[in-house]
Structure formats: structure tokens, C-alpha cells
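Notes to self after the call with IL:
- keep both proteins in one doc
- input above output, always
- annotate only the second one for now

Protein 1:
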Amino acid sequence: MSGMRGTLSRQGIVEAAMGLLDREGEAGFSMRKLARELGVDPMALYHRHASRRALMQEVMKALMLSCPLPDPSGDWRADVRGLCQGLRELAHRHPGSFRAYVVFEDWVPAEHLLHEELYATLLAAGFPARDAVRAVRLLLSYTESFAVDELTGWLEPLGPRELHALEASLAGGAFPAIAGLIETIASPDAEADFAFGLDVLLAGLGQVPRDAVPATGYQQPK
């Protein structure tokens, strides 16, 4: 154990913490459990990270630095779609860490990389400042919520038991619209559903009046 402590690095702790979060979720994460996994005394972790919160800051930083950021294409719709898809992809790669990120209260500077790309894309497309801010909030809320629903199993096809329970809850005929759609409701297609939602959002944003010249002459960075 003493040899392990000597080679323990801040980055190694962060990577192990992310792995533990992804396997067991935030509810199953603790500094003691992380120390046991690394084969060290819990105090060894605090020699590298002053507190659990400080460690979580580093985990969130590492997570957001790994978020895919496609190169700008000049088509704001395609660029926004790519950025949102990249965030969803990140959620699938690091499910527990992503769920921790969604509820983490502190700002993590690395998350501004994604935000900057979204704002820059919309400003360069001529969206007024206020509309750009509203659009980014909407896009992030949709993508994060959809990803969390996927991670928690809400968007998986229903098995026989779940389908039977749903049918039983509709007994009595008080919900004819739901009953008529039950087969479709029970067999979601997450890929198609996510794309549909983005299509709707982008179509709506396409109707927002835009400036002929980007605000303050803003040009999207290369």
C-alpha cells in the first residue's frame, strides 16, 4: 500500500473517481470507497485533493474537457446539432459522471468550452444576444434532460411486465388517446426521438428574426 501511495497522482485519482461514478453513480460514490479501490488510506486522497468537492471539481473538469466539439461547418443548424449530439455522446460514455455534472452546483470553467461554441455559432448566424442566450438554454435543457432520461431507463422499450403494468393502469377506458398509442409509447427509438426533438427546436429557431450582420460584427472562431 505504501508503494501505491507513492505513485498516486492527482490525475490518477480523477480517472479512478470518474470510473467509480460511471459504474455506481453518485449515490454509490464515496472517498472511502475510492480509496479502497486505489488501495490507499483515505487520507492519501486528501493529500492530493483538499476535499470531496475539490475532487468533484476536477472530475467535472475532466468530463467536460472530453466533450466532443466539432469544427464549425458554416451551417449553424448542422453545428448546433453536432454540439448537442456531442453532449449526448458524452453522457453515454460517462453515465454516472454526467448525472453528477447535471446536478453539480459549482461552475466548472471547462463547461464553458461547449457553451462558447453554442453561443458563437448562434451569434455568427445573426441571432440577437437575448435570443442566443434563450436558445442555448433551451438546447442544453433539452439535450441534458433527454440524456438523463436515457441513462435512467425511461426511454428503453417496455418489456412484457412493464407493458402489462401500463395497460393495467389504463383500465376503465378513461384514457383512449394513450390506449390507442400504447404500442408506439412502449417502443421508443431513442436515436430517432432525439433527432426529432432537435429538428423541432432547430425549425423553431430558424423562424427567429436574425440580424443581417452578426451582433457587434462577431465572427465565429475557426
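Protein 2 (the one to annotate):
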Amino acid sequence: MKIKSLSYKALGALLALPLIPTLAYAFQMEIATKNNYEGLTPQAHWNEMWSEVMWDITIIGAIYFAIALFFLFRYRRTEHNQVGKSPKLSAQAIIGWVVLPCMLFLGDDLFLFVKAFDLHNQMREVPAHAQTIKVTASMWNWNYDYGNGVDTDNELRVPVGKPVVFRMTSDDVIHSHYLNGYHVTEDVMPGRVTWEWIMPVKVGESVITCREYCGANHSRMYGKLIVMKQANYDAWMVSALADAKAESGHRIASTTVGKAIKNIAASKINKGQEG
């Protein structure tokens, strides 16, 4: 009994080994950077992985379908009261029919697991030269802060050909920042900073949505990702900076005028009380 118990514990420990690196990433608070970026984008890697999974399940499904058809016609009943009989197998044959298919499927699953884990690592290792954009989620809005005084709501603009990392937090409940054109999503939580990154490789527009139910208007929490040529992006940034400075000056002027009006009003009240 002790040997059997130890065997179960050893098997459980082996099965838990692949979870250790995943848990390490789950509790990782700082962004892991990668200096030598080989150029394979996460979305291209995701497409490659998806293609292999589709081929895998298609081939396996076709093989099972062919075997099922063979058994259906080869061992069909030929008489009304005919009863089938199972063949007698030796112990070696029984073990072989159990172990060999299991090993084949396990080898296939391990191959896909390694490919998926490699994709996971790539999505969690950000190129060291990536542009950083702060994302703040709230019901039901995405705010993008470029770190230079420019921020936008529900519209994200980035230059083509340069990696971008998003450092994200929430003002209220849990959201999930999903870039459907790049196959990346990450939960956005209050009191914690999470991140995801993309490599824009094509000029154009795609949709940003929330993939975590966050209230009555969850379905309306979407935005737009606009990938621009570098020259167009630079021109837009210059214009956005000018607008941000003008808005900031207007706020300062409004605040100053407001304070002056309050001071005048307070002065008149004091004089009236004195009189």
C-alpha cells in the first residue's frame, strides 16, 4: 500500500511540473524584457499555433472517422438474431492496445503543449525598446496615456513596425483588454498593474473590446486601434501635443478666473458684513 501511495504522489508531482513556470508568470509583477527580439510577432506565432492545432484535430478526426466507417461495415450484423463476440486477447495485446495509443496521443499533446508554452513565454517577454502606453479601464471606457501629456479615450494610435507594451490598471471592476487583430488579451484589475504587448506590422484599423463582463454596458466598451505610418504618427502626435497644451492652458486660465471671482465675491461679502 505504501508503494502504491508513493507511486500516486510521484505521478501527481510529475503532472504538476508543467504548471510551475505558468504559476511563476502568473505572480510576476514586473515586465520581463527581451533584448534580442528575433522578429516573430506574437500574432504570427499565434496563427502558426492555431494552424497546427487545426491540422492536428483534423487529421485525428479523419483517422477516427475512417476507422469508425471500417468497423461499421466490416462488423455489421448479417442476420436478424446475430450476436457479436469479442476476440480473446492476450495480456500483451491488451497492454499494447492501451499503452501504444496513449503514448501516441501523449506525444502529440506534449508537442502542442511545448508550442503553446513557447507562445506564452513570447507574449510575456517584451522587447526592451518597446513604446510604453498606460491603459486605464473604467465603466465603460478605455483611456490611453502616452506619457507626454497626450491621452485619448477609446482610440489608440501606434506607429507601424515598432513594439508597444500596455501597462494596464482599472479604476473600478475587472475588465479585459482584447486586441482582436493581434490575438492578445489580458485582465485589467483595480489595484494591480498588468501588461500585454503587440508588434504592429500592417497599417490599418482593428477593434479593441472588453472580454470580461463588467456591467450593464459591457457590450459597448470598445475602441479602435489605428496603426499608422511613422510620419503620419509623428504628425498626429505633434497635433495632439498642441491640443493637450492648449487644453491645459485653458484649464489653468479657467481655474485662475474662478479663484479671482470667488475672491471678489468673498471680499464683497466681507465689506457688506463690516458695513
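Annotation: The helical segments are 2-16, 19-26, 42-74, 91-124, 230-274. The CA atoms of residues 11 and 17 lie 10 Å apart.
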